[in-house]
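S.,

Sequence below, as promised.
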Amino acid sequence: MRHCQSPATYLAGKFSPRLFGAVLLGVCHGACCLGCCWGLMLLLFVGGVMNLLWIAAITGFVLLEKRLPPTWRVRHLAKLLMIGSGAAFLLVG
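The prediction came back faster than expected:
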């Protein structure tokens, strides 16, 4: 998450002027992004890539997670919401 909350610092620290430096930097940054956001990406595909409500909800969550101070435990709230909604789905369905 440190890479996502301050990408400019990460990108400036890993910059390389070599020929394939930008490609390597992009691959490394993409791997970090995939490593911390794979759950949200999976939710996007499960909910439907073209479902505007899902996209808006995930965008709002990511915005809160990136902009609130790290002392706010947004990810813990998200875990509780997802566990609760999964339990409710199992009980109702």
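The chain has a mean pLDDT of 78.

Coffee later?
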